[in-house]
Each structure stands twice: as structure tokens, then as C-alpha cells.
Amino acid sequence: MDGHSRNADPEELARFDEAASGWWDPAGDFAPLHAINPLRLDYIERRAGALAGRRVLDVGCGGGILAEGLADRGAEVTGIDLAERSLEVARLHALETGAAVTYRHVAVEALAEEAPASFDLVTCLELLEHVPDPASVVRACAALVRPGGDVVFSTLSRTPKAYLFAIVGAERVLRLLPRGTHRYSAFIRPSELGTWVRASGLELAHLQGLGYNPITRRYFLGDDVTVNYLAHCRRPDPQSP
User: What InterPro entries does this protein map onto (predicted)?
Assistant: First the structure.
């Protein structure tokens, strides 16, 4: 294990490891991730361009739901995480499906030192609100993408509406997620993420909200970024005219 592993909450890692066997159960604890994955993939491809042939890094890949989706669309994918049992599940599932994904147990900060500017696209979804120092993750993602490349983040905004929808609604009422999945204090406002993004040398190109309709039980992309949101960033290319 590298020295950068300190930017991880041991309780969070333990919780994800405990639930690791359910990563690929579409009706289990990770059902919302399965439901939103097509939306996330469509957003990434719409903003960053076709994925075929692109070198992509998925930071905080968990059991590989997004990573396999990226690979299915033709990307050359590397997934990294610090939850070892989740990575074991991801590797096993990739063997079963034939998904061309390379998984590594490494901190994003350590990989940024090892392989800077190595990826065309870096994705970091549903992770920033689970680490002690999210700004450090943003900096590492910025370092890992090549000039002219794209970075996509997703997280939850620290607003009363997000507390009502993501914690009270999703965890306690609708039980879409296990209780304790999220801590409101760790949610990140778009303005805060934007500050970290710009300080890391990235440009914030686009924000997109992700909502849920409890009547139809369907997720959708929209303009409201006060609960869940995605952020598309670009690393400027000094050589570009």
C-alpha cells in the first residue's frame, strides 16, 4: 500500500467491503448505480465525445459498474479503488463477462505521481463525498488527464433539499440506499467543486443535475443541481490553436 492511502475513511472502506458481494445485484444495495449508469454513460459520451479507443481512468471504481460500461462502449479502461473486496468482485465479474478493464488497488494521488497526463478521460463518480480530502482527489484527477482531455465528476450538493432527498428520502423513506450511506457534512456545493477544479488547472465546462421521480421510480438528467449533479471539466491544451 502506498503512502497516499491516508486520503480514505477506514469506516467507508469497511462499509463498501462489507457490501462488496452485492455490487452486481441490480435489486440490491447498489441498485441505484445500476439504474443511473446508462444516464451517466450517455452524459460522459455526449460531453467528452465517443469513447471508442480512448484511454479512460475510473477513479473509485468499486465493483466495476461504470468501468464495464465504459469498456462496453469501446474505451480502454483502468479502474482504481482502495476497497480491496470491491476490486476482487470487479475483477471476477470482468472475467465472467470478458470486459476489457484493468483494475488496480492504488490511491489516485499515487497514480498521479506514477503516470501523469496518461489518460484521455478521467471519471470520478460518487466518490468525492466519501473521502476526507476531496480537493486532493480533484488535483490528482487533473494531473492524470492529458492536455486537451476531459474529467467528469459527480457528487451531491450540500443543500437542505439534498438532505431531504438523498438522506431522508433515499435512505430512510424509500430505502433506495442503506442507512448511513451518506453524511450531509461531506456533500459538496458546485461552487466548492468549481473552486477546486480551477485551482487544479481544469476548466469547468458544464454542470448537469441528476434527479429521481418517486412516482415513476425513474432517474433523469435535468437542470437542477441542488441534489445530485455531474460536472464536466477540461484540461486546457497550450498547443491547441
Answer: SAM-dependent_MTases_sf, UbiG_MeTrfase
- Rounded Cα distance between 18 and 33, Å, is 17
CB atoms within 10 A of CB 168: 12
Fold of 10-235: Rossmann fold (3.40.50)
Is 49 annotated to bind a ligand? Reply is no
The residue type at 69: G
Q: What would the pLDDT profile of 107-137 be if each residue is shown by its tens digit?
A: 999 999 999 999 999 999 999 999 999 999 9
Whole-angstrom distance, CA of residue 96 vs CA of residue 6: 32
Q: Distance of CA 210 to CAs 183, 193, 218, Å?
A: 19, 16, 11
User: First vs last Cα of the chain: how many Å apart?
Assistant: 42
Amino acid at 159: T
Q: How far apart are CA 66 and CA 45, in angstroms?
A: 13
Q: Is residue 15 over pLDDT 90?
A: no
Annotated binding residue at 125?
yes
Condensed to tens digits (0 to 9), the pLDDT of residues 34-76 reads: 999 999 999 999 999 999 999 999 999 999 999 999 999 999 9
- C-alpha cell recorded at residue 237: 491544451
SS3 content of the chain, % helix, strand, coil (to 5): 45, 25, 35
| Nearest CA among 87, 122, 125 for reference residue 106 | 87
DSSP code at position 167: I
